[in-house]
Amino acid sequence: MKVAVVGATGLVGTKMIEVLQERNFPVTELIPVASERSVGKKIKFNEKEYTVVSMQEAIDKKPAVALFSAGGNTSLEWAPRFAEAGITVIDNSSAWRMDTDKKLIVPEVNANVISASDKIIANPNCSTIQMVLILNPLHAKYKIKRVVVSTYQSVTGTGVKAVDQLMNERKQIEGPMAYKYPIDLNAIPQIDVFLENGYSKEEMKMANETAKILNDKNIGVTATCVRIPTLGGHSESVNIEFENDYKIEDVKNILSATPGVVLQDDIHNFVYPMPLTAHEKDDTFVGRIRRDETQPNTLNCWIVSDNLRKGAATNAIQIAEYLYAHALIG
User: Fold this and answer.
1) Could you say which architecture CATH assigns to the domain 2-124+312-325?
2) Quick check: is 234 catalytic?
3) Which of 19, 94, 317, 324 has its Cβ near the most Cβ atoms within 10 Å?
């Protein structure tokens, strides 16, 4: 099976190629795609070298599936062209997520809604993916009314320029700035642009995408998204109000049995999720599970996941695995 990776030289694209290899996805030919300045570069995959090609060259090679991580504008322009050629696109940008005709997929939650006619499938925002993995089984059991989430997001979510900024600041080297302010020894309460309602685009993504993925517009989600100087993944403090009451042990048992979720909740031995230990893992980790003592039927928890893996590359490849397993590509 021919597989194209669009944006193959970026942080997420590189991780997609790595995860394809790790998970033994049945790739017969890798088609790395990047901007014109990267065309001709070599990419190593499964002990073979592949040459980076242009968008049109990739379409002409007719891959079964194209994993896109090249930004929203590129996706808006090129994803439909790939789809028209019969290629299934799994897109990591925000371009198609809220399009009513496109599916927004976290495989453990809602892969069953995918059909053969879906030629452009959206990968959710990284911070949304890890949260809905926890919310989904709890919503099925207790029915969620409202979620209050504060995020602590890694610089890797911005890209190579942001990682370079952090490392340069630590070495006291001047260089290009990905952010308006220094990030080392700092926390920046802005991710993406601000909207007229005072929220950032990232904050509204979490609200809107959660409702779409869980197929329930009655869940209220309010978010504050913050960039911090970490590399291993995104962290989230999540307060969940249910319609029905719960027992802490039942919640832990439900989450322990949820695919893709690892419970790390032993405060007596200082066991809880952290970016440092979530780094390079495909699972989403949850801990610090406790009752909100200020109002009924409300739970606090702490969620951590590697944003380049489950938050982006791994989730996209899991979608491709579902398509392959159900003979929707091949």
Assistant:
1) 3-Layer(aba) Sandwich (3.40)
2) yes
3) 317
